[in-house]
Structures are given as structure tokens and as C-alpha cells.
Design goal:
By secondary structure, this protein is an alpha+beta fold. Helices cover about 55% and strands about 5% of the residues. Helix 8 packs antiparallel against helix 9.
Length: about 260
């Protein structure tokens, strides 16, 4: 005896609903592309990092080696090698140059062209971008791309680095955001340099107490903890303690006699 429709439908109904849901989602995606709200790329190719952008802050104390590497774009295959370094040599700044290696998927046209250049290179050589090209990259329609959610923190950091000389308040807000919201593995390398840059900018503005509080937060976050990937090196940790000591000394000297 053949099963009746009333018996078969409950078994296949979830599958039918799933297919209808997928079709509806795909039609919505196509409609958004046609309207220009989403840039069309392979919807199934949206995970991982396809390019790394190296950026250093524009400070007088930034050494020439780090300054020369500013704006270099690396393929993931280069960054993942055991002895990778974004600079050719050793940083000459005893206090360390503040730099960021920002991983992006890059689904908008400006970034996509860079990805294609990296992929076309047989040796996967890095690409150097001039300052105006870096600005063009972050000012492109990244918010309309399918990688907007995963790339927004990286773009925010690049905006901060390129603008903290002219608009430090806006940059500091973006560095704070990186410290607070960098939870994905791709964003973890941004945290330590964001702490260092924030302390530097606060110190320049005379916000000694804010800088000291930030250093204490840094200590609480890393001191005595089991080492984890992208945690500060011993040298970086000691550099931050040196900054703390100097700030406390400056604060004591600036305090009126007889006050604590």
C-alpha cells in the first residue's frame, strides 16, 4: 500500500521550506547587487584574509626602515612564513616604532584590484602603496561590500593611523574601539600597538592620568597571564612599564609642593 500524501508531506516539509528559504535569500542578494547596495563577489568566498596592509604612525621618531615599509601589502602566504617581517631589517627605534599589520578580506573594487595583483604575481611579492593609494583604499565603498562586517575594524585602524596626526581625538576613539572589540583572531594583532599609540597620543595631550589608567589596564590584561598569540613580548611589556614610570615621575614634578 502506497503512503498517502498526508503521511509523506510532514517528512519532506522541512526540506522544502529550507530550499524555499535559500532561494529567497539568493533572490534578495541578487536584488541588492542589482540596486548597487552590495558589490557582487562569490558569496561563498567570504572567509579568511586575502591581504595584509602594513602601516606605521607618522612620527618624527619612526625609523627609516619602518617608514619605508609603510603602505606595503603582503599576501597571506608571506605573512604565514616562520620568519616573516614586514620590514627589511631590524627596527632602529630603541622604543619601538608603533606599527599595525592589518588583515583584510577586501571585497570592494579598490581592494579587489590589489588582491588580483597579489594573485597574479608568481612569486607573490608584496605591493607598495603610496599614501594617496592607501587613502583611496580606505575611502572606497567597503561598507557596501560583502566583507564589510569582517573588515570594518581593520579599516577603522587604518583610518586612525592615517589620520591621528591631524585628528587625534577621532583616531583615539578608533584605537579604543580596537582594544575593546578585537575579539576575532584576525584582529588580535591590532590590540598591543593600539595600546601603545593611545598612550602616546594621551601623553601628548597632557592627559597623564588617562594614560596611566590605560597602562594599568594593559598590565591587568597581560601581567602574569599564560602567554597567548599576539600578546606583548617581554620587551614590549617592559617598554610600557618604562612609560608608566616616566609618566608618574612627570606627574609628581607637575604637582604643587605639599600635594599628593
Amino acid at each position: 500500500m502506497e503512503p498517502s500524501i498526508g503521511v509523506v508531506l510532514p517528512d519532506i516539509l522541512p526540506y522544502l521550506l529550507a530550499i524555499v528559504g535559500l532561494l529567497a535569500m539568493w533572490q534578495y542578494y541578487q536584488l541588492q547587487v542589482m540596486k548597487g547596495r552590495i558589490l557582487a563577489i562569490d558569496i561563498f568566498d567570504r572567509s579568511g584574509i586575502r591581504l595584509y596592509v602594513y602601516a606605521v604612525t607618522d612620527d618624527p621618531q619612526t625609523c627609516e626602515l619602518c617608514r619605508a615599509a609603510h603602505g606595503t601589502v603582503f599576501p597571506p602566504s608571506a605573512v604565514m612564513t616562520e620568519h616573516f617581517s614586514p620590514i627589511k631589517g631590524t627596527c632602529k627605534n630603541p622604543a619601538g616604532c608603533t606599527s599595525f599589520l592589518v588583515g583584510l578580506y577586501g571585497a570592494w573594487p579598490d581592494a579587489q584590484r590589489i588582491v588580483e595583483r597579489l594573485q597574479l604575481s608568481r612569486s607573490r611579492d608584496p605591493i607598495h602603496l603610496y599614501q594617496h593609494e592607501l587613502h583611496g583604499l580606505i575611502l572606497g565603498p567597503w561598507e557596501q561590500s560583502i566583507s564589510a562586517y569582517t573588515d570594518q575594524l581593520g579599516i577603522s585602524i587604518l583610518e586612525a593611523v592615517l589620520g591621528d596626526g591631524t585628528n587625534p581625538d577621532s583616531a583615539m576613539a578608533k584605537y579604543h574601539r580596537a582594544i575593546e572589540y578585537a575579539t576575532e583572531v584576525r584582529h588580535k594583532p591590532l590590540i598591543v600597538p593600539a595600546y601603545f599609540r593611545l598612550v602616546e597620543l594621551m601623553t601628548r595631550q597632557g592627559r597623564t592620568n588617562d594614560a596611566l589608567r590605560l597602562i594599568e589596564e594593559f598590565e591587568s590584561r597581560y601581567k602574569g597571564k599564560i602567554p597567548e598569540p599576539f600578546a606583548p613580548t617581554e620587551n614590549e611589556f617592559n617598554l610600557m612599564l618604562t612609560k608608566k614610570s616616566r609618566l608618574k615621575s612627570s606627574a609628581r614634578m607637575a604637582s604643587p609642593v605639599g600635594t599628593t
